[in-house]
Amino acid sequence: MARVYNVIAELCAYIIDSCTEDFFVMYSCVSPNEVKRIEKEIVEKVPFLVDKDGVFVGRDGRERKRIHQLTKEDMTEEFFEALDSYTKELREKSDYFGVVGLVQVLDTSLKTLLQEKIKEFQEDDFTVVLNTNRESTGIGLLPRCSCVWERKHRLSHSYNRMDNFLFHMLLMENRILGELIDKHFFLKNDLFTEFLEKKELKIAATSLRREMGFSADLYEKDKVQYFRISYEGENFDDDNELIWTKIVDAAANKSDIIVFPEMLGNPEMTKYIRNKIKALSEEERKNIPSMIILPSFWERKRNTVTILNRHGEVICKQCKQNPFRIEDKGSAFLEGIIPSMVINIFHFEGIGRIAILICKDFLTTKYMEQLMRCFKLTLIIVPSFSTGSYDFRQSFDLCAHDDCNVVWINTCASMQKGKEANFENVGYVRKRISRTDDEAQMLCGMKTCERAFSGECGHDCIYYETMRGV
Questions:
Q1: Are 273 and 297 in contact (CB under 8 A)?
Q2: pLDDT of amino acid 79
Q3: Which of 52, 132, 46 lies closest to 89, judged by CA?
Q4: Do the Cβ atoms of 392 and 418 come closer than 8 Å?
Q5: Cys staple from 444: which of 107, 110, 429, 439, with CB 3.0 to 4.6 Å?
């Protein structure tokens, strides 16, 4: 099966390497006569891709050949000989319009097989790309999950790229990804059961607590000043019980995802929460949020978020890639973390693609946009430990422009004396809405409770927001 995806990757790489952005602008306005010419050639050269008798009326009112849904049985040597011969002919003639037209037909013809592939990937721990020639072509291909709030022609008026013309495959370019390593997780259908029924994604976010529970130790190495995090105390039961209480609250409110802030984790947290979930009955576990994004924990020069599913299983761990910088008495100190370079992408039909960007990762615009453009992210979740919300709010609009929703949650534990004005809200949800909706629904703030400003905490803050189709 990889053979057909290898052909597509080669064709996409050929177009990307050969054509300027102007070509994609022009192809977006391809004429009906040119479409007919490409269709006629495909019928003649690769008849396996069209139904012999099937026709349909296109948006232009013209009859078009119905594209055949390929099966594994169709992948014969005769099919590949015809496909290889035609692609060779197109390249020899530098027929760029013909190449893109063929890729579009292949994208549509593989729709059923790609849906089957998603089911296979859901059984894997994580997923590798469909094609085996990623290294030589610089292209990775995966099934593309749809998203209920994403426009079909997302960014086609803003970015002139090959993937504007693909709807069933996710095209990832290595030149955009750079040195990052991508791991993909196709989440099982038994997770987001509420979403499957209602096409709504309910997210719970909690600032957790006012108490910090750790200290920043300053040190110098190789001419640079750094800080590392040290956690206080040896017994974390109270902290972990509070985390569990928030998960139970989110379950009672039928939340699909719960997210906690950065830095407020501890070394016993993951085991504690897993054991709590495992102790539930199968029926009780059905109400637990599908994804639990635990507070990040700073250990061994890594600032790491652990992601659990509702069954108490660890889906993966996401490390922070971009170190934060703090100031102390006029000097600057860099967070002493070592980036893992691994970015985890979660796929689910109807939700699209989710990534977790820990605090500074989201504020590092080049990094954030790199991920958004490479993976066409539809939801970014941002656990944070920050003295204010201004910079985060500035970045929200970049995501909205890309049909990507954002959940940002901070913590009152990061509040500093003299900076209380920065904490009108301790979190935000930025979501895409329809043109007919009230714009006030676009940016939803999570109000900081009054007690936090006096240093008190009732440990009862949890916020809910729902994302819907547009």
A1: no
A2: 96
A3: 46
A4: no
A5: 429
